[in-house]
Amino acid sequence: FAELHAAVAGLPVASSRVLPGIVLRRDFAAYCPARGDLRAVLVTEPLRPALSAPGVEFLVDSEGRYQASQRWIAWRTEALMKHFQSNDVKLLLSSVKQEELVIYYAKLYGVSVVECLSSEEVALICEITGVSPYEPFGDNTHREITESAVATFCQPLLLGSKRCVHIGFTSVCAFQPHCLILCGPVEGVNEQHAAALQGAFTMLQQLFKTVYQ
Which residue windows are transmembrane per the record (predicted)? Predict the structure, then answer.
């Protein structure tokens, strides 16, 4: 329930509504408008390549080698975004904050980015879409990306003064997510309404579980 409702203070209760899809309560790190269905990839690690393996010290002993290392990182990052573009990936959902270099090349190659998803949001997206997080495949940037979901829309959404991300996914199961937008004059009223609705949904869930057992 926490991931499928959003509270907005300062608006009348009558402004409450139900929206198809899910609402992520954060703004785009990069937004590139796209029409129609778009492929989305979920990641749980930084996409800026590291110069060494974890636990291995990387020593740069000259300015020239340092600059060469930075050029290699930029080249690898750009190659990954080109790979996304060639696989028609238009949306990157990340549980970690990506570095500015990743955001720069994402904008350059038309990939929208949403960062800092919670573990609960990642689990919800995986359940809806049936996909697993994408992992860069070593030095092979030519293989087809199969760990992608289909989003029917992805757009900014303004809730009060807060900019959010509204996404509709093609679900692979019977569960068709909708997000409840709860509006009220103050946060306390919204919290009361949310608690009451969650209790009602819990009761209905238990009721139908009893009926179908």
Answer: none
Q: Which residues contact 151 (CB under 8 A, 6 or more apart)?
A: 37, 38, 39, 40, 91, 167, 168, 169, 170
The answer on 156 and 182 residing in a single domain is no
Range of the domain at 163: 22-176
Residues 14 and 107 in one domain: no
Distance CA 58, CA 84 (A): 28
Q: Rounded to whole angstroms, how far apart are CA atoms 89 and 141?
A: 14
Q: Do residues 125 and 66 share a domain?
A: yes
pLDDT of residue 88: 92
DSSP symbols for 91-158? EEEESSPPPHHHHHHHHHTT-EEE----HHHHHHHHHHH--------TT---S---SEEEEEEEEEEE
Lookup: tokens for 153: 């829309």
* pLDDT interval class at 141 (50, 70, 90): low
Query: Which structure tokens are listed for 33?
Result: 């408008």
Q: What is the pLDDT of residues 28-79, one digit of tens each?
A: 999 999 888 899 999 999 998 765 545 555 556 567 766 777 788 888 899 9
Do residues 160 and 201 both lie within one domain? no
Reduced to 3 states (helix: H, G, I; strand: E, B; else coil), residue 41 is strand
Q: Which residue has the higher pLDDT, 60 or 90?
A: 90
Same domain, 128 and 207: no
